[in-house]
């Protein structure tokens, strides 16, 4: 609207100040209705400038309108200037507009300043409501309640909007008790607004925010007493029930609903998915489709999550087709969460190529998209693809680091996990407790105790010691590094123990040869009311196996089904068969196999073959190996074990034939390797090693060691050399096993009296076991060896395994 010069306009068209004021008021209304914020700012400034040059002294209603329109724009400075200059004419309308504008822009400090500087005599109920509402939106409940109390003290009468805001503010109170809710409820009833829909909705929401179990009943009473209900009413009570996990109550309210409120349907489906009721979620989705209720990105995300969690990938593909048909209705922002869950679905179904195709075609990606694709590669063990994607990520977060480090650890690349973690720390990035858990698992796999202890210190520094994931990882790390005492100390100091914690500690005791401690801990777990699961019984059976506790093993095998209804799986049967075989009760092991409710698998035949080795039953070994050759023809352990059994019985021709069969089939034996950590560096040794830079010093020391332990009664067991050669050559070969080289290096480099911790990728041989027992007595050192099956603690000429291994 063109504005003539003020003097001409005032003299020729408008002869009085009232007419001029009406003109400006009409023009302000025209600007407000014609230009949405903040596009109205330019014409508003033009009109304001015209008003200033007109000579008119505007009254309060014009100033209030200007303040209001400036407040709706980005020019809050002009609003505040007008407000401060209008002291004689200042009223609650202007103060409320400015307060609300500052609160909406995130400047709650200035909103509070406006509130405090406004005299009580010009305040009104709306003014107090705006301040309470501002604190409620900022989740500063205590301050909102304080303003409400001040309002009552100042003599103002609350209205329904006041109580709606106060109830919303109370939501953010941390320690919200049922009594707080009831006090506010009583105030609402006393004020006579208990039947106002918005107030009742806020009351229902507040009751469901309270952690007290009785609060649900109070919420339902408010709901039932409402004469009218709107969409928010149904949404509030059903979503509240779902968030509490009270699906029965949620479904009861849902079935009583008489409207097609798609938000409520989405909440109900999401609740079923999160609680694992996949069939109920899918049934509700089908009903939703049949009734023509609109589907949105939240619907599809929940349903696809149900398909992923239930392994229903075929159905998920059908839902994807449904999404594609609705595709034109989705904006890139709406499609984003759907595409993210589709990436996860295709990755978990093994179709990572389709997941990557979908990922590349996405118009919009967020960190969840990148992490979903990263997890997809890690899950299918395409770790190099994962690393390439990781390096190209534009936005990394804690989840990205956690997925990548865990991926390295789970794919046998613990060194890379530690290197990545150190790089992250070097960039000043603070890892989360789950990342620490993954890296500590890598330290456990490597047996790197010193880095693991450093990580423990960092966990304490950042306050993650109360995290179960970090605590369980610490416990396992110490156990895998051979320090079971420290593992037990971590267990005893954890603030909360879950089943994973108990299982890890029982397993640690078992692997270290403390079978009775493992049994005592299991009994304590039961007394504490922790429900044992199938993993618990696997660990206790393994503990019995390592210590030869046959009767106890039978007891727990039967106990798991009789008392807990856990049907033994093939892994439980394998543990018991292994236990019987080690004890020489091979016929009982065969009878157990015949009584199994399923056909024996390779796990069972491996256990039987190991048992045949202890008894020297060649025919049984051949029978078990024949089954394994058919099931897992490329497993090197079968050939080696059968060859060793033949050789131990002097049947060298058959042993040679087995090794030839192994070569013909292209199966390669994993070379024996042992490693030891010295001064934060890991030193590896192979059998008859020549590659280590200090190997000559190690061999010279081993010659002296062999001479010393022979004087103490050690005699090489050359029967364990399963090749036809001279006796002296056999003794020479035994003395150059990798574990002895690692121990010799430890004796050279570690401080006097320090424990020697060695890790080996294969089972320790019988002759080395005997030699190390004597070494521990000869040098007064504790020597700890972790082989592929268990730990051996050598001290004062004895071993923790009691020669039962």
UniProtKB/TrEMBL annotation:
A UniProt-annotated Pfam family: PPR_2
Molecular function GO terms recorded: RNA binding; zinc ion binding
Repeat as UniProt keyword: yes
PPR repeat extents: 124-158, 261-295, 366-396, 397-431, 498-532
Any one GO biological process: RNA modification
The keyword Transit peptide appears for this protein: yes
Domain DYW: 713-805
Keyword terms: Repeat, Transit peptide
Gene3D superfamilies with a match to the protein in the record: Tetratricopeptide repeat domain
Protein name in UniProt: DYW domain-containing protein
Origin organism lineage: Eukaryota, Viridiplantae, Streptophyta, Embryophyta, Tracheophyta
């Amino acid at each position: 609207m063109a504005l003539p010069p003020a003097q001409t306009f005032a003299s020729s068209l408008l002869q009085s100040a009232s007419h001029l004021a009406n003109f400006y008021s009409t023009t302000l209304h025209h600007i407000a209705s014609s230009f949405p914020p903040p596009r109205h700012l330019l014409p508003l400034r033009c009109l304001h400038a015209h008003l200033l040059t007109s000579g008119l002294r505007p009254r309060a209603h014009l100033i209030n309108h200007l303040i209001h329109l400036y407040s709706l724009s980005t020019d809050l400075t002009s609003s505040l200037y007008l407000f401060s200059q209008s002291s004689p004419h200042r009223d609650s309308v202007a103060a409320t507009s400015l307060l609300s504008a500052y609160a909406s822009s995130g400047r709650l400090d200035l909103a509070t300043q406006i509130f405090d500087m406004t005299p009580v005599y010009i305040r009104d109920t709306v003014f107090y409501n705006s301040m309470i509402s501002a604190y409620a939106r900022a989740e500063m409940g205590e301050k909102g309640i304080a303003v409400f109390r001040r309002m009552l003290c100042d003599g103002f009468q609350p209205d329904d909007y006041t109580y709606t805001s106060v109830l919303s503010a109370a939501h953010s109170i941390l320690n919200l008790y049922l009594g707080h809710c009831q006090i506010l409820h009583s105030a609402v009833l006393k004020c006579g607004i208990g039947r106002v829909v918005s107030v009742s909705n806020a009351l229902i929401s507040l009751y469901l925010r309270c952690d007290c179990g009785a609060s649900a009943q109070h919420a339902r009473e408010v709901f039932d007493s409402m004469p009218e209900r709107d969409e928010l009413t149904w949404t509030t009570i059903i979503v509240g029930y779902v968030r509490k996990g009270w699906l029965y109550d949620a479904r009861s309210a849902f079935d009583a609903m008489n409207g097609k409120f798609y938000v409520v349907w989405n909440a109900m489906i999401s609740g079923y998915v999160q609680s694992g009721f996949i069939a109920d979620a899918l049934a509700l989705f089908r009903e939703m489709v049949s009734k023509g209720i609109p589907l949105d990105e939240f619907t599809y995300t929940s349903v696809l999550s149900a398909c992923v969690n239930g392994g229903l990938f075929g159905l998920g593909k059908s839902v994807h087709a449904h999404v594609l048909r609705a595709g034109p209705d989705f904006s890139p922002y709406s499609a984003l969460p759907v595409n993210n869950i589709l990436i996860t679905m295709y990755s978990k179904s093994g179709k990572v190529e389709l997941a990557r195709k979908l990922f590349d075609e996405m118009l919009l990606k967020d960190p969840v998209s990148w992490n979903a694709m990263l997890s997809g590669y890690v899950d299918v063990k395409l770790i190099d693809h994962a690393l390439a994607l990781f390096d190209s990520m534009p936005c990394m977060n804690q989840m990205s680091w956690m997925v990548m480090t865990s991926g390295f650890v789970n794919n046998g690349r613990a060194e890379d996990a530690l290197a990545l973690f150190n790089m992250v720390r070097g960039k000043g990035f603070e890892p989360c407790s789950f990342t620490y858990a993954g890296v500590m698992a890598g330290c456990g796999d490597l047996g790197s105790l010193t880095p693991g202890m450093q990580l423990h210190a960092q966990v304490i520094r950042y306050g993650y010691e109360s995290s179960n994931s970090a605590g369980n990882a610490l416990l396992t790390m110490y156990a895998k590094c051979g320090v079971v005492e420290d593992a037990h100390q971590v267990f005893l100091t954890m603030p909360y123990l879950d089943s994973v914690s108990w299982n890890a500690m029982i397993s640690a005791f078992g692997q270290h040869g403390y079978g009775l401690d493992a049994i005592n801990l299991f009994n304590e777990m039961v007394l504490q009311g922790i429900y044992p699961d199938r993993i618990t019984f696997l660990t206790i059976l393994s503990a019995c196996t390592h210590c030869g506790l046959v009767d106890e093993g039978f007891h727990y095998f039967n106990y798991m089904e009789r008392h807990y209804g856990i049907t033994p799986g093939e892994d439980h049967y394998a543990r018991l068969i292994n236990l019987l075989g080690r004890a020489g009760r091979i016929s009982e092991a065969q009878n157990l196999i015949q009584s199994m409710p399923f056909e024996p698998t390779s796990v069972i035949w491996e256990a039987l073959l190991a048992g045949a080795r202890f008894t020297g039953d060649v025919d049984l070994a051949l029978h078990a190996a024949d089954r394994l050759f058919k099931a897992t023809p490329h497993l090197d352990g079968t050939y080696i074990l059968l060859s060793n059994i033949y050789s131990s019985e002097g049947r060298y021709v058959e042993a040679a034939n087995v090794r030839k069969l192994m070569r013909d089939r292209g199966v390669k034996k994993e070379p024996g390797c042992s490693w030891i950590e010295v001064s934060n560096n890991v030193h590896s040794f192979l059998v008859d090693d020549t590659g280590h830079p200090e190997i000559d010093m190690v061999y010279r020391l081993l010659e002296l060691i062999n001479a010393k332990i022979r004087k103490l009664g050690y005699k090489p067991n050359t029967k364990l050399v399963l090749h036809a050669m001279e006796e002296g050559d056999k003794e020479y070969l035994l003395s150059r096993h990798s574990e002895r080289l690692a121990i010799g290096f430890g004796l050279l480099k570690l401080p006097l009296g320090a424990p020697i911790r060695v890790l080996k990728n294969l089972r320790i041989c019988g002759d080395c076991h005997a030699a190390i027992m004597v070494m521990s007595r000869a040098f007064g050192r504790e020597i700890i060896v972790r082989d592929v099956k268990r730990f051996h603690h050598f001290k004062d000429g004895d071993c923790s395994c009691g020669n039962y291994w």
